[in-house]
Write a structure and sequence with these properties.
- By secondary structure, the protein is an alpha+beta fold.
- The chain has two helices and eleven strands.
- The chain is elongated.
Length: 197
């Protein structure tokens, strides 16, 4: 009888630890559809079918219903993970200025990437920048040494739709470890029942 109680208590403990470990990062996908295109501010063209997609993941560690920048583990747009950029150098800049997501407040962020052809302290460098802003849209800028900047803006308009949907909870390694431990415990119990001492 005592063995059954101990085994039951161990199984309950493993189940509890597995549930705690399941507080893993959750992944969402966001989509922006419909933009007003502008080139250097000279003209404006509607592109209601133009679409931008991205994903973000994180864990609401403080359980306040908002995923903030310090709880973010990834923000991917066009093959760039802004939450895990390579280190900034004299020819590369990547950053997230702000980030938050909640059901009530929606998705709010600004992310920027700039790639330089050469360090800016040399002559004849050119840079390409892309700026994602959840309030205004997307700005692509080319600028450089003795060069007039060229701006291509994809701005939100009244017909722009913004959607965010949860894709999945991403399990952490601890989850698999606890699952394996629980399975081994159950296997040991079954073995003892089959071959009693």
């Amino acid at each position: 009888m005592m063995k059954k109680l101990v085994c039951g208590a161990l199984l309950a403990a493993c189940s509890t630890f597995t549930q705690v470990a399941c507080a893993a990062p959750t992944e969402w996908e966001f989509t922006w559809t419909g933009f007003r295109f502008s080139y250097n501010g000279y003209y404006s063209v509607d592109h209601p079918e133009y679409q931008v997609k991205g994903t973000f993941a994180g864990t609401d560690a403080n359980h306040d219903g908002t995923l903030s920048m310090n709880e973010l583990s990834s923000l991917k747009i066009d093959f760039v993970d802004y939450a895990a950029c390579r280190p900034n150098t004299s020819t590369y800049t990547c950053r997230i200025d702000n980030f938050s997501y909640s059901q009530a407040g929606g998705l709010v962020f600004r992310a920027l990437e700039v790639v330089y052809s050469a360090p800016t302290d040399t002559s004849w460098w050119v840079a390409d920048a892309i700026d994602y802003d959840s309030e205004y849209g997307i700005t692509k800028t080319r600028f450089g040494y003795q060069m007039q900047p060229e701006d291509m803006g994809y701005y939100f308009d009244s017909y722009t739709t913004k959607t965010v949907k949860q894709i999945s909870a991403v399990p952490e390694p601890e989850t698999y470890a606890m699952l394996l431990a629980g399975m081994m415990l159950l296997g040991g119990i079954a073995r003892r029942r089959k071959y009693p001492q």
